[in-house]
Amino acid sequence: MIEVSIITPTYNSIKYINHVYSSICQQDYHHWEWLVTDDCSSDETFKYLLELSQEDSRVKVFKNKENSGAAVSRNNSISKSNGDFIAFIDSDDLWLPNKLKKQIQFMNKNKYDFSFTSYELIDENSVLLNKTVDNHDIQYVSYDDMLRKKATLGCSTVMLRRTAFDDISMPLIRTGQDYGLWLKLLKTGVNAYLIPDVLTQYRILPDSISRNKIKKAKRQWQIYREIEKLPLLKSIECFCFYAWRAVFRK
Predict the structure, then answer these.
(1) How many angstroms separate the Cα of 66 from the Cα of each of 36, 72, 73, 106, 141?
(2) Residue 217: pLDDT band with limits 50, 70, 90
(3) pLDDT above 90 covers what percent of the chain?
(4) Mean pLDDT throughout 153-170?
């Protein structure tokens, strides 16, 4: 039976991590392992996860030696995973019950190696914000599409076929490491295919880095120049597409 390795980084996530676990347990696909790496939380997150792992053998918990960021945490979990598929869920997001099963069926039926789903936004109290990110005008995303941010791939929506890629590790940057990974994978020539159904709930928190447009723009430029090492003119071209979409995207 196909096994899915679910990858989660945590840091002071005690308020939400039990809800993440519940949403995984409620999946109608049960052959999974959940690998969580804690990034030196100062709350009860790590203690809770250790207790959970003693009750559920599918839960595998690790801890960084020092606070190192989400990329290091995710890479640690990926390196210890065993599944045929790699799925990501962050420590405050949620999955709808049919997410794993539907995504695996979609990928196997079409022989896809990289897929993502539409998602809806919720607030810190899990209340729907009546906003959906569905990328409705696309069927798939290529490397060039991703450079120009033609689509938004929520990290918690992505699933990868392990054998299709030599390296699934994220670049060691503090933010935007998931975007950096999507670029690295798409650069091999594969495409990322969209499941248009909403299968994930993405939580928006008041202090979220993703809400700071200036920091996001600086991160975007850093990825173009330092990670992808694009020429200056190419970087400017892609950044213009990114900026236009950031301003006019509904």
Answers:
(1) 15, 10, 10, 39, 36
(2) confident
(3) 81
(4) 96
